[in-house]
Specification:
single chain, about 550 residues, alpha/beta, TIM Barrel, 2 domains, two-stranded antiparallel ribbon, 19 helices, globular
C-alpha cells in the first residue's frame, strides 16, 4: 500500500513539474520576438478568433528579410483587392460567374482582373485569333453586369509584348515573331505590330465602356532585339535592348492615353527591374503607367529588396501582385495554401515597410491557370477558392504580423463550412469538403485523386514491388508469382477508383466548366495514371500465366 501511494505521489509531482514547464514555455513562446528573423505565430492576426487555436503554421527563419528590421504592420491593407481570373485555361461557364463574383464580394474583393487571352471575342480581321469556345460579346457584357451588381471593378488584361503565344502560334501571324522558332514575343519594329496591337486594344476597350484601368501585361519579354529588323534599329539608334523595350511600351501607352484619356494603364514590373530610374523617367513612362510589382514565392523580399529605392524615385503609385494559386508547380492539381499564405504575409510586411515612400494602390491576387498558353492546366479555380478566401482574409486582418492556425469565423461563414478548418494540416485537406462553397465538389474529387496517388506511391515503395515488378521483370516476364501477387494486391481497386474519379469529376464540373475543360483535365491528370495502372495489371497477368521460366542469363535486346 505504501509503495503504491508513493508511486502515486511521485506521478502527481512529475505531472505538476511538467505543467509548470509547459506554462513557462508558453509564456516564452508568446512573448514579443527579439529578432526580426523569428516568424511569429499566426492566430493573433484575428484577435476575435484567438480562442480557436494557438498552433502556429510555420516557424521559419527569413534571413534574407532582415533588411526590413523589426518593423511590424498593425493595420489591414486599405487599397484595392483585385482577384485575377486567368482565362487562358479552364474558363468558367457564364452561369458560374454570379456565384463566383458574389463570393468574391463577400470575401472582401474590390475588383477582378480578366486575363482573356484567346477567350475574348475578337472580330473583323482578328476573328480567327479567338478560341473556338471563346466568350461571346453578350457574355462579356453579362460578366460586367454581374461585377457591377456586386460593386466589383473590372480590369481587362491584354498582353502587348511577351506572352502573345495565342496570337503568334497561328500561321497567319507567325511572321510577327521576334524569334521565328519561338511564338512568345512580338517583334516591336515590324511595321504590322503596332496597328495589330492597337486594333486588339480598341476591341477590348469597346467591349468595356466603363473602364478605369487597363492592364497591358508586358512581363517576361524573353526575346528582344534578336531579329534582323530589331538589330538594325538598335544599331541605327545606338540603343540598348532596354531602350527598345521602353520605346515599344511608350508607343502602346501613348496610344491608349491619347485615344482614351480617362483610362489608367497598369503593367507588370519585371522588365523595369534591370532599367535605371533615369532611363525610365526620360521616356515619361513614370507619369503614364502604374507598375504592378509581382513575386509569388514564400519570401518575395529576397528578390525585390533592391528595387524599392529606385521605384520610390520613379513612381508615386504602385500595385503589387501576390498569388493564391497556380504559382508553385506547373503540373500541380491541388493548391498549397501554406505557400500562398506566407506569400501574402511577407508582402504585407513589404507594403508596411515602404508605405512611407510609395503609395500601394492595390493588391492583385493572381490565380494562374496555366504557366503559359502551351502549358498544361494547374490548380482549378473552383478548387482553389479556400486559398483565395484565406488570403483575402489575411489582407484585411487587423494584425498583419501573425498567422492563424484555423480559418476565422467570417471565412467559415462565407464558404458555408460546418465547422472550422485547420490550416496546420497539409493540403489537400479533408476539412474543406465539409464546406459548401461553389466548387467544393471539384475539391472533393481532387482530394480523392490525391489519395489515390498516395496509395500508388506506397505500393511502388514496397519491397515486393521494387524487387519483383520493375521494368526488367516486366520486359522479360520473369518474376516470382507470390511476390507479384503481394505487390499489386490493390491494383483492381485502383482501376475502379479511377473510374469513379472520372465519373465524379464530370458531375462536379457541370455548371462550372465546359466539356473541353473536363476532357483536358481528365487527359492530363487521370489518363496517364490509368495507363500506368493498366500496364501494371497487364504485366501482372502475363507474369502469373507463366508456369516455368528459362535458365539465366536472360536474352538481352541491347
Amino acid at each position: 500500500m505504501f509503495s503504491l501511494r508513493g508511486r502515486t505521489l511521485l506521478t502527481l509531482l512529475l505531472m505538476t513539474i511538467l505543467t509548470l514547464l509547459a506554462l513557462i514555455y508558453h509564456m516564452l513562446s508568446t512573448s514579443p520576438p527579439i529578432s526580426s528573423t523569428t516568424h511569429p505565430n499566426l492566430h493573433n492576426r484575428y484577435p476575435e478568433f484567438a480562442s480557436l487555436t494557438n498552433v502556429p503554421i510555420h516557424q521559419k527563419s527569413h534571413d534574407s528579410y532582415m533588411s526590413l528590421g523589426s518593423h511590424q504592420s498593425s493595420s489591414s491593407f486599405k487599397g484595392h483587392k483585385i482577384v485575377h481570373l486567368d482565362l487562358k485555361g479552364a474558363p468558367p461557364v457564364l452561369n458560374y460567374y454570379r456565384r463566383l463574383l458574389k463570393l468574391f464580394k463577400t470575401l472582401g474583393a474590390t475588383g477582378i482582373l480578366l486575363e482573356y487571352e484567346d477567350m475574348f471575342p475578337y472580330s473583323d480581321s482578328l476573328q480567327n485569333v479567338s478560341a473556338t469556345n471563346a466568350y461571346s460579346p453578350q457574355d462579356i457584357t453579362k460578366i460586367q453586369e454581374i461585377a457591377f451588381e456586386y460593386n466589383l471593378m473590372v480590369i481587362p488584361l491584354i498582353q502587348t509584348f511577351g506572352h502573345l503565344e495565342f496570337l503568334l502560334k497561328l500561321d497567319s501571324h507567325k511572321d510577327l515573331r521576334e524569334v521565328p522558332r519561338y511564338p512568345q514575343v512580338i517583334c516591336p519594329t515590324n511595321p504590322q505590330t503596332l496597328p495589330l496591337l492597337y486594333q486588339m486594344i480598341d476591341q477590348i476597350i469597346h467591349h468595356h465602356p466603363n473602364l478605369k484601368y487597363l492592364h497591358i501585361g508586358a512581363d517576361e519579354v524573353y526575346h528582344i532585339g534578336e531579329c534582323s529588323r530589331c538589330f538594325e534599329e538598335l544599331s541605327k539608334r545606338q540603343w540598348t535592348k532596354r531602350q527598345l523595350f521602353l520605346s515599344h511600351i511608350k508607343k502602346i501607352v501613348e496610344y491608349i492615353k491619347g485615344s482614351y484619356p480617362r483610362i489608367k494603364v497598369l503593367m507588370w514590373d519585371d522588365e523595369f527591374r534591370g532599367i535605371s530610374p533615369s532611363e525610365i523617367m526620360e521616356t515619361g513612362l513614370h507619369k503614364m503607367v502604374e507598375p504592378v510589382v509581382w513575386k509569388y514565392t514564400r519570401n518575395p523580399a529576397a528578390a525585390l529588396n533592391q528595387v524599392w529605392e529606385g521605384y520610390s524615385e520613379i513612381w508615386k503609385n504602385v500595385w503589387v501582385a501576390t498569388a493564391f494559386k497556380g504559382a508553385t508547380e506547373p503540373d500541380r492539381y491541388w493548391t498549397d495554401i501554406s505557400h500562398h499564405l506566407e506569400n501574402h504575409q511577407r508582402w504585407l510586411e513589404i507594403i508596411d515597410h515602404y508605405s512611407d515612400r510609395i503609395t500601394f494602390k492595390g493588391v492583385i491576387l493572381t490565380g494562374w491557370q496555366r504557366y503559359d498558353h502551351f502549358s498544361i492546366l494547374c490548380e482549378l479555380l473552383a478548387s482553389a477558392l479556400p486559398s483565395l478566401a484565406v488570403n483575402l482574409a489575411v489582407l484585411q486582418a487587423k494584425n498583419a504580423n501573425e498567422f492563424f492556425g484555423e480559418i476565422p469565423r467570417n471565412v467559415a461563414q462565407a464558404l458555408q463550412c460546418e465547422g472550422t478548418v485547420s490550416l496546420t494540416i497539409p493540403e489537400p485537406n479533408y476539412g474543406w469538403t465539409k464546406c459548401r462553397f461553389p466548387g467544393v465538389e471539384v475539391y472533393s474529387v481532387i482530394l480523392r485523386l490525391f489519395g489515390l496517388h498516395q496509395d500508388i506511391q506506397r505500393m511502388e515503395e514496397e519491397n515486393t514491388f521494387k524487387g519483383w515488378l520493375k521494368e526488367y521483370n516486366i520486359k522479360h516476364v520473369f518474376s516470382n508469382p507470390s511476390y507479384v501477387e503481394q505487390a499489386v494486391v490493390e491494383l483492381d481497386r485502383f482501376k475502379m477508383e479511377l473510374v469513379y474519379i472520372e465519373k465524379e469529376m464530370k458531375s462536379a464540373m457541370e455548371g462550372i466548366y465546359d466539356e473541353h475543360t473536363f476532357n483536358e483535365w481528365i487527359e492530363t491528370f487521370v489518363v496517364p495514371l490509368n495507363d500506368k495502372v493498366t500496364r501494371l495489371w497487364e504485366a501482372k497477368e502475363k507474369i502469373l500465366e507463366k508456369a516455368s521460366w528459362p535458365r539465366r542469363p536472360l536474352k538481352s535486346e541491347l
